[in-house]
Amino acid sequence: MSTPSVVTKNIENLAKLSNADMFFLDGSKHNSKILYKNNHNVDRYIQTLLLSKLDLLLSHSYTSLYYDLGHVLACKINSTQLICLSFLHQVSITNSNQIPISSSIQHLKTLAQIIFSTYNSVEAPEAEVYIINISSLKHFKPTHLLQIDSGLFYDTETEIIKAIVFSNKLQLINALSTLSSFNIVGEHLMTNNVIRGEKNTLISYVSIFNRAIIQWGYPAKLAFKLQYDLVQEIELTLKFSNLSQAITKIAWHYFNIFKQHRVNSFLPLPQRVKNYIKQHIQENITLDDIATDLNASKKTLNPAFKTAYGVTIIQFVRHVKIEYAKELLLSSNFSILEISELLSFSTATYFVKTFKKVAGVTPNQFRKSHSSKLLKKII
Fold first, then answer.
1. Does one domain contain both 249 and 281?
2. Cα dist. 144→153, 198, 255 in Å?
């Protein structure tokens, strides 16, 4: 295989679904290249950081590198080259069609294996993910964990809550940095069951953040659904790669959701409907749900939306679901039934019928045709 300066569309779709930027690192030339930009402002610091750790990254099949403002998942695709997905905590990840936010080893390993197998067209190694923790603000020196000062710990948690409800990004960065310096593991977890203790800790933060956003005007129905989904994800996670990073991701998740809610409150109704559909695309969306959650009249929804976008709400929902289904067909091994269930179609037959009506071909025909074309584009 010739030197890969770009990757297949399959891996780009994976980066898109993960809301990540994608980099290619070449150890033989000691350089890096941005392959896919999910975010407008890709920080050059990340590339410098990865190059500084190149030898270490190349010594493991899969590596997850954590720093103050995010983390990078590196997959070694051959002896000298890597493909990396870069995730930033402060970037919005509120859409429900994105990969789960919890910091779990099995999620990281699955992502890395998909990258490897898609790129090389062979089965990925069963190696474990190697975890690296550094501090981007302290010249890569490991931080010394502080013992718990109850007063300072409480004040820090209060600062996190204030940052979320007032959408203060800098305050959240500083407060989370302070929180990460506490020895949460030693003081707060069950000594006889660390995993259970970690889950209890994360669930308690979800509960605290949930109460805070409800008190500041976030719809209770949506908040409790968010809480349920996060708790389910936490409970199903077998092992967390880093508890502090998991707390950080959850905090940023609430920050972005509540900030978007505040922005949406001032948007025209059609745009609020459009945003709602994209955020709930995996659900069985009805006009009643939209009207209730947006506190709008059901009679005004379709006329206002069609005037603004030229299609009905149901037509738009169908289009967005099929576009997401296309991404899943190319970036995953999900079956037709699994995709239809993920997107809340009543039956797989109805999903296939809808897909063909919108795309002109069946899901299987689309996957077979596009996958074979994309794999031939590897350079």
1. no
2. 16, 20, 27
